[in-house]
Amino acid sequence: MLRQHLGLRMALLLLTLVVGGMRSQAQYKPVQFKEYDLANGMHVILHEDHSAPVVATVVQYKVGSRDEDPARTGFAHFFEHLMFESTDKIDRGTIDKLVNGAGGELNAFTSQDQTVYHFVVPSNEVRLALWIEAQRMRKLHIDKIGVETQRGVVKEERKNRYDNAPYGGMLDKLMAGTFRGTPYSWSTIGSAQHIDSAAISEFKDFYDKFYQPNNAILVVAGDFDETVIRETIDAYFGGYPKAAEPTRPVFAGLQPMNGETKETINDPRAQLPAVFIGMRGVGMKDPDSYAADLLAKIMSNGESSRLYKALVDSAQISVNADLSVIGREYGGLLLLVGIAAPGKDIAPVEQALLAQVAKVAEGGVTDEELTKAKNQTETEFIQSRQGAYQIALSLSNAYRYFGSTNEINEELAKYLKVTKADIQRVAKRLFQTNDRVVVTYIPVKG
């Protein structure tokens, strides 16, 4: 009887997802935009939408941790913080106050491939957002006060997120093993020692190399007048000269991993044993990336996913089982995670994770699993196109990674074209290997 009830609930869930996916597809409209280049090489994308009195600006600089000197890691992330310091016309500690006082919000993030800054403001404050971005693009003050302040902020962030956190440094170890010999082999936060020992002149050189108009993409999305915005952009950004193209590391190819490497860490901060397994995935521009994303959903998205049902629900050896796909421009990481249930050993969790990915490579997936994953993807896609900031970020990423802004309107169709045969082929490609990095954490009393 219990099985029948569970089956009925699953059928209702699938029906809801199918209907919801059909509704989302019917409501989706292609994102309209205009784009052009300033004489100095800055690429501009405009998306006009008067449905709400809000405007988002995104400035994406084509610089991430992969562009750093291996002896000076953490610079890209450091600038994510430093860019909120003073400029020629903005005093220290006032950027937040200016934007918040205008009723807006702001933030930034860094990855291996990019550094992105954004504002979301009422439509009548869009000139403020553009002025701030123009100020800090070429008029940032890189001085002792600002640098020393942000050194402290970044070191504290590293302590909280890595050094003093349970399972801290896990991703560093997996990236180092999976991408050994490439600029993806260190984390974006970098080394505290590198940031500590860097001279102010080194930060200035990094700024002058990468924070240039021809290394940036500006997106304005929302409720604005195109003529006014074009005039404002030209006035604020157009006077900056075009710089030399920055030299970047060349990805000559990944080195062989030569099988499995394992490390066990005694962790006084961990509450439960955990295992993290890193394998090479696919890059963002790889045609197999769409099937890989859907495969990850089938394996670990929700309580009906394969890993949850096998390790958490049925065997009850784990409180969490997950597969994540981390895509970057020149490669990717597959991350399998298992956290043991209280009183359970971690070895069976590792074995079960590997058994499940081997099973999907050998037997493929069902029609129902693929339909559900596509519906989930479609819903996420629609949601990511419903706000000014989400649209602006998606537009900047489409141009940044694919060289075609219209990729924003073509991406969903590529997911929907994936077949069961594609899923199994990609599962074989990714999982039928012994090349992996396994890091196990064992709780110990401090």
Note down, in words, how this protein is organized.
Helices cover 46% and strands 19% of the residues. With 446 residues, it is an alpha+beta fold. The protein has two domains: 34-237, Metalloenzyme, LuxS/M16 peptidase-like (Cytochrome Bc1 Complex, Chain A, domain 1, 2-Layer Sandwich); 257-443, Cytochrome Bc1 Complex, Chain A, domain 1, CATH 3.30.830.10. The strands form two sheets. It has a six-stranded mixed beta sheet, with helices on both faces. The radius of gyration is 24 Å and the shape is globular. It starts with a helix and ends with a strand.
SSE topology sketch:
Elements: H1 2-27, E1 34-37, E2 43-48, E3 54-61, H2 75-82, H3 95-101, E4 105-110, E5 115-122, H4 126-138, H5 144-163, H6 170-178, H7 192-197, H8 200-210, E6 216-222, H9 226-237, E7 260-267, E8 274-280, H10 289-300, H11 306-314, E9 318-328, E10 331-340, H12 347-363, H13 367-383, H14 388-402, H15 407-416, H16 420-431, E11 436-443
Parallel strand pairs: 2-6, 7-11
Antiparallel strand pairs: 1-2, 3-5, 3-6, 4-5, 8-10, 8-11, 9-10
* Percent helix range: 40-55%
Question: Which percent range describes the beta-strand content?
Answer: 15-25%
Largest sheet: 6 strands, mixed
Query: In angstroms, what separates the terminal alpha carbons?
Result: 48 Å
Q: Which class do the helix and strand fractions yield? A: alpha+beta
CATH architecture descriptor text of the largest domain: 2-Layer Sandwich
Mean pLDDT: 92
CATH topology value of the largest domain: Cytochrome Bc1 Complex, Chain A, domain 1
Q: What characteristic shape results from the CA principal axes? A: globular
The number of domains is 2
User: Mind telling me the CATH class of the largest domain?
Assistant: Alpha Beta
Total beta strands: 11
Q: How many helices does DSSP assign?
A: 16
Strand order of the largest sheet: 1-2-6-3-5-4
Which ranges are low-confidence, i.e. pLDDT below 50, for 5 or more consecutive residues? Answer: 1-26
